[in-house]
Amino acid sequence: MKLFDTLSEYGHEQIVFWSEPELGYRGIIAIHDSTLGPALGGTRFWNYASDDEAITDVLRLSHGMTYKAAIAGVSLGGGKSVIIGNNRTRDREMIFRAHGRAVESLGGRYITAEDVGTSVDDMEFVRMETDSVVGVYGGSGDPSPVTAFGVYQGIRASAERQFGSASLEGRHILVQGLGNVGYHLCGFLHEEGARLTVTDIDEGRISRVRDDFGAAVVGPDEIYGIEADIFAPCALGSVINDDTLKVLRVKVVAGGANNQLAHARNGEELHQRGILYAPDYVINAGGLINVYGELHDWTSERSKRKAGEIFGTLLRIFALAADEGVPTAVAADRIAEERIQRVRHLHRSYV
User: Fold this and answer.
1) Rounded to whole angstroms, how far apart are CA atoms 135 and 142?
2) Which domain holds residue 331?
3) Sheet holding 230-233, edge to edge
4) Is residue 343 part of a domain?
5) 80 annotated active-site
6) Tens digit of each residue's pLDDT (9 = 90 or more) over 23-54
7) What per-residue confidence (pLDDT) applies to 124?
8) CATH code at 51?
């Protein structure tokens, strides 16, 4: 990987590598853009196949956080961090305290939170070394319920646009990934009367959703080919790709996972096939809103109400995409970039 060429391609301001091998810590922090405010993004703990894979992931995720913050209307920039290793390890304190020191080295330019493979308990270890962490006990805590509520509202907006009604009663919805966000999302969908077909690689998660919400269960690779109304990816990224598009049989893609499109051309193909795509960084912004609320002492109800605005934001994106004849992802990017440029102009006004 030509690192500086890659940084230029994504438009990043800074990337930090931090290693404390005696503690089992190898971390990367990426700050994409701090125009709107300090960069905020969670810490992902994952057993990457290579360092290049980890770098690519942190760059893509932090880029997405900039756009997520911009379109959610909060005063934050985009950042992300990854820890390379086995996220099932029980020996976590020193790993996350080392990560806290890496975060602290940035002097408040980056604020972290939990993400895939990490928990509120892990963030408590981070807090031993830095104040630049949110989603801790006594704060907003687990952002998953608010994230799931925002995704639920985004699915309702997608149904409104594609089917003419926001009601999900009787709609067949495929949910991929039954972690915290996926589980809470299934709860919202079940309560409204949707018919659920789900998948995950964890049998415990599958059993919980099947028992609690009466969901049908299929294998991880089967989910893509099932005929349904809506596909809600809530696991890892790049699930909408050249291979899965060959078998996808839904009218809407709207879920909580980050970086759902493997390539920009996959968003174009969804557009050409008439499959409505809810851009991931728009529909899953509830977690960001939740921790932003913690920074500003919002009540949980205020954060949830703000996440509910995802419904209207997506309708505006869908309308713009239809008016201009472009994929929804392109329309969302334009709205986010416009806000960043306007704030950048304000900054120049005060120089």
Assistant:
1) 6
2) 144-337
3) 216-217, 195-199, 172-176, 230-233, 252-253, 276-277
4) no
5) yes
6) 999 999 999 999 999 999 999 999 999 999 99
7) 96
8) 3.40.50.10860
